[in-house]
Amino acid sequence: MRVNFNLVRRTLRTFLLCLLAPAGVALAQSSPANQPAPAPHGNPLSAHNKMGYAMMKNILLRSAEKMPEESYGFRPTAAVRSYGQIFGHIADSQYAFCSAALGEKNPAVTLKVEKTKTTKAELVAALKEAFAYCDRAYDGMTDAAGSQPVKFMGMDTPRLFVLMGNHMHTAEHYGNLVTYMRMKNIVPPTSEPGFLPMPTR
């Protein structure tokens, strides 16, 4: 049996046109002329930025819980921060980034988590408080507000970029924590079987 490929192509083309035509009509009726269709979620840039932050928040909190108390003072060499000090540094940095995005005074100037907290319980609590502070910055961000410049590290920087820098910085230090965990024979959260980056409810 010989297949007429020209006939097959014409039939498929007609079938696709029949499928797509109603969608095109509906789109034309729902959107004003010469206006782009609304962006997904209304604020795709800030929404996806918030998603990246939420993933890192979940991973960091799980990393803080996984290491036992007695290993919070562990450091591979004297030239680097201890496991606990990394969390203190991350907490202080959360305040620095998010206060800039919010246009507020940096609370870390007086809190100084890295310098004042040493136990696992203190550092986990301080980390959760810092994330709670940042939640407000991410929850209230829109694409329009994210384009507004704020002073950060002496430069005029869009608010959204400041928040992106926050979870990029957190991801950088998660790389440190992974090494520390591996040296203590602890499986990092992102290497766990069935790892889910976002918290489940």
Question: Can you offer a commentary on this structure?
Answer:
The chain is mostly helical and 201 residues long. The protein has a single domain, classed as dinb family like domain (Four Helix Bundle (Hemerythrin (Met), subunit A)). The protein is 63% helix and 4% strand. It has eight helices and two strands, in the order H-H-H-H-H-H-H-E-E-H. It has helices at residues 5-30, 44-66, 83-102, 108-111, 113-116, 120-139, 143-146, 159-183; strands at residues 149-152, 155-158. It has a two-stranded antiparallel sheet with strand order 1-2. Helix 2 packs antiparallel against helix 6 and helix 2 (44-66) runs parallel beside helix 8. It is globular, with a radius of gyration of 24 Å. The N and C termini lie far apart (57 Å). Mean pLDDT is 83; it is low at 1-39.
Relevant terms:
single chain, about 65% helix, disordered N terminus, about 5% strand, Four Helix Bundle (Hemerythrin (Met), subunit A), two-stranded antiparallel ribbon
Short description:
With 201 residues, the protein is mainly alpha-helical.
Structural class: mainly alpha
Number of domains: 1
CATH topology: Four Helix Bundle (Hemerythrin (Met), subunit A)
Quote the average pLDDT: 83
- Can you name the CATH architecture? Up-down Bundle
CATH superfamily: dinb family like domain
CATH class: Mainly Alpha
Shape descriptor: globular
Main sheet strand line-up: 1-2
Number of strands: 2
- What Rg is obtained from the alpha carbons, in whole angstroms? 24 Å
DSSP helix fraction: 55-70%
Distance between the termini: 57 Å
Biggest β-sheet description: 2 strands, antiparallel
- Tell me what portion of residues adopts beta-strand conformation: under 5%
Give the helices and strands as they follow along the chain.
HHHHHHHEEH
Figure out the total of helices.
8
Poorly predicted segments:
1-39
